[in-house]
Amino acid sequence: MKEINLKGKRALVTGGSTGIGAEICRQLAGCGADVVINYNDSRAAAEALAKEIGARYGVKAIGIKANVADSGQVREMFLQVDRELGGIDILVNNAGCETVQHILDLEEDAWDKVLNVNLKGPFLCSQQAALQMENGGGGIIINISSIHDTVPRKGLVHYCSAKAGLKMLSKCLSLELADKGIRVVSVAPGAIETNMNRAEIEKFGKDKFEQWIPQGRLGHVSDVAHTVVFLASDLAGYINGADIYVDGAYMNHTVQYDPRPERKKK
Ligand code: NAP
């Protein structure tokens, strides 16, 4: 069996300084890849992680600030990647955000932000990455979706719509970019305990949550990161356009709990 070896590969992980993204950065670096840690707000976390990764794995690790939903900032980030690393081989579109709101209270701003970060961001980053990958002879784009690309949930109409769009973005890109040696896949986590959902898990009770998951536990960030390094490697060279669920079979057994806040006064 071949080992996963990403030596000489250059990776960029959006939203790479926290949660699932940070573990993806660590695992990619652990397999030998140089890593760019994109952040928007979490500068200190990105810089600390870059230092940790560089010291621990002896790879190049740098933090670059960019709002993935802003085309100018995304273009600038990829120019910097080209300057610092001479191109890119692996893009992980991991940055994401959500709010929980009743559909009848959902403001246009919240809809726009969630769609822009979770869907427009991956489009903008994938386009810039693919332009560099095309010149570099290929690469891989991995979009971190969610079981909510398929499973609806009350209070998450914007998030579910964005992730469903992201799943289709992966499929369309795989079709358009295969002839350039670029593979595109999505990885769809179930319930992974991170800053994004810790409060929600606490609200309903961790025990109860774990009983809803057929494998009997929440996911770890490493469950997602291990899948990403496998997909980024040559071992996954014929996987293209797939949506891979990393959820302990949660999506086959989701309970329709209601995370929505009380309705605002009419
Ligand atoms: P998290 O720790 O809150 O990570 C979200 C990351 O997105 C942060 O590092 C944040 O960076 C970044 N981000 C947000 N807006 C951004 C923007 N405009 N530009 C650049 N970066 C931005 O939560 P997480 O759970 O690790 O989430 C990572 C991904 O996994 C998301 O796409 C999420 O939808 C997906 N996911 C998570 C779960 C779960 O159970 N946790 C389940 C399914 C899918 P800054 O702090 O620097 O802004």
TrEMBL record:
Molecular function per GO: oxidoreductase activity
UniProt-listed SUPFAM superfamilies: NAD(P)-binding Rossmann-fold domains (SSF51735)
Protein name: Glucose 1-dehydrogenase
Recorded family membership: Belongs to the short-chain dehydrogenases/reductases (SDR) family.
Keywords noted in UniProt: Oxidoreductase
Domain of life: Bacteria
Pfam families: adh_short_C2
Gene3D superfamilies: NAD(P)-binding Rossmann-like Domain
NCBIfam families, per database record: PRK07231.1
